[in-house]
């Protein structure tokens, strides 16, 4: 990079103003990287953190083009952006990471699965369907997984089809049918890659999902797996990011099957919920690493400092309105508990309002404290 990447003359743009952008800005400030963000509302979590904030629609071609045209580097904190505009900006010389072609592929789960097959990346068997009629004719036996090709996030856009009755409420949009995997654990590896082609992985983590909400409830670092499994998972993550020829941060979500195989479930080309613990538990956080990667700087050490557990702090199911955090002071008084609130003014049922990381020399003790934190904090109105 010819231009100095820090200080007032360098413009680092971020499309999306959610909590991932907020935590990225907090790390960028340490290096005097001035972040210019765009989102639909100034009340977005990073609305008052960015050096400059533009209220705009990140899915609109003209608005994204106007926002990005004077940026030195442009990145995203969410995949749902106007890729056509990013391609145009790239043609005009703006450095866009992850690259628009990568975003276009990954945001479509059908294209993503086909990419795995073409590149010898192990994944669950699948077939693409365009209608409920095609779904009813699938060769898969019940139960199977039904996913929207585009638009799903945090468990939305995913259904388990257990029987003929479930077909009545299935998606009618283009989607894919996937073999239901009898897995032992759900795992995640975050890998970073810069323009030089340097890569570094964060240690493998284990995810515990809420069966009710189908989103991550707890994250455990390190994962309770063999050394061989961890090495294989990290090698697989590097294989994926290199096959994509991607610059930036990539979260690779994996199934560990009961017979010891690793299958790629999905990937996310950005900072990720499964890396929040790195702020306290690793030498370099995922947010700093993403900045280093897209600015083509030396990648930071991912060495784990201490075992940890991350718990998502969700809005209570019966409340919608101005957020009140009951029990917060009790949790803050506990040694080794680090609370991150995302600055969302209004709580909604099961909305991600923050997270807490519990760092402890004993992973089992950290798990116990995390479950206490989850019960102690109530996010209501």
Chain-wise SSE layout:
Layout: E1 12-15, H1 19-28, E2 35-39, E3 52-55, H2 61-68, E4 73-76, H3 83-91, E5 95-96, H4 100-106, H5 109-118, E6 126-129, H6 132-136, E7 144-148, E8 158-161, E9 175-179, E10 183-193, E11 199-201, E12 205-209, E13 216-221, H7 227-244, E14 248-257, E15 262-268, H8 278-281, H9 286-294, E16 308-314, E17 321-322, E18 324-326, H10 328-332, E19 337-341, E20 346-347, E21 352-359, H11 363-376, E22 378-380
Parallel strand pairs: 1-2, 1-4, 2-3, 4-5
Antiparallel strand pairs: 6-9, 7-8, 7-9, 10-11, 10-12, 10-14, 12-13, 13-16, 14-15, 16-21, 17-20, 18-22, 19-21
Helix pairs in contact: 1-9, 2-3, 3-4
Q: Could you tell me the strand content as a percent range? A: 25-35%
Largest sheet: 9 strands, antiparallel
* Number of separate structural domains: 3
Q: Determine the oligomeric state from the structure.
A: single chain
- Rg, rounded, reads 20 Å
Alpha-carbon distance between the termini? 48 Å
Structural class computed from helices and strand pairing: alpha+beta
The number of distinct β-strands equals 22
Low-pLDDT parts are: none
In the CATH scheme, the class of the largest domain would be Alpha Beta
Approximate shape: globular
In DSSP terms, counting alpha (H) and pi (I) runs of 4 or more, how many helices?
11
> Which fold name corresponds to the CATH topology of the largest domain?
D-amino Acid Aminotransferase, Chain A, domain 1
Helix content: 25-40%
In CATH, the homologous superfamily of the largest domain goes by the name ATP-grasp fold, B domain
Q: Which architecture of the largest domain per CATH?
A: 2-Layer Sandwich
Rounded mean pLDDT score: 96
């Amino acid at each position: 990079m010819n231009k100095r990447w820090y200080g007032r003359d360098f413009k680092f743009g971020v499309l999306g103003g959610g909590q991932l952008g907020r935590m990225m800005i907090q790390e960028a400030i340490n290096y005097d990287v001035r972040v210019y963000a765009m989102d639909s509302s100034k009340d977005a979590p990073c609305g008052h953190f960015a050096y400059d904030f533009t209220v705009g629609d990140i899915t609109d071609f003209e608005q994204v083009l106007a926002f990005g045209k004077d940026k030195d580097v442009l990145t995203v904190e969410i995949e749902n952006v106007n890729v056509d505009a990013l391609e145009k900006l790239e043609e005009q010389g703006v450095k866009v990471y992850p690259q628009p072609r990568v975003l276009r592929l990954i945001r479509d789960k059908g294209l993503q699965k086909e990419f795995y097959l073409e590149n010898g990346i192990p994944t669950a068997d699948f077939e693409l369907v365009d209608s409920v009629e095609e779904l009813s004719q699938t060769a898969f036996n019940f139960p199977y997984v039904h996913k929207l090709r585009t638009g799903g996030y945090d468990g939305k856009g995913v259904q388990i089809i257990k029987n003929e009755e479930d077909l009545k409420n299935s998606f009618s949009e283009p989607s894919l049918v996937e073999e239901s995997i009898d897995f032992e654990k759900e795992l995640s590896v975050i890998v970073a890659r810069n323009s030089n082609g340097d890569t570094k992985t964060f240690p493998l983590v284990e995810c515990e999902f809420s069966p009710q909400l189908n989103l991550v409830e707890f994250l455990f670092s390190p994962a309770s797996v063999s050394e061989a499994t961890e090495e294989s998972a990290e090698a697989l993550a590097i294989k994926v990011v290199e096959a994509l020829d991607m610059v930036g941060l990539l979260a690779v979500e994996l199934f560990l099957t009961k017979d010891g195989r690793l299958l790629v479930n999905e990937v996310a080309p950005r900072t990720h919920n499964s890396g929040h613990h790195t702020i306290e538990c690793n030498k370099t956080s995922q947010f700093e690493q993403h900045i280093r990667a897209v600015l083509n700087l030396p990648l930071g050490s991912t060495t784990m400092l201490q075992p940890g557990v991350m718990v998502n702090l969700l809005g209570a199911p019966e409340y919608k309105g101005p957020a009140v955090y009951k029990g917060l002071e009790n949790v803050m008084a506990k040694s080794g508990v680090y609370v991150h609130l995302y600055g969302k003014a209004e709580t909604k049922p099961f909305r991600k309002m923050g997270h807490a990381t519990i760092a402890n020399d004993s992973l089992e003790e950290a798990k116990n404290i995390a479950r206490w934190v989850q019960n102690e904090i109530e996010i209501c109105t």
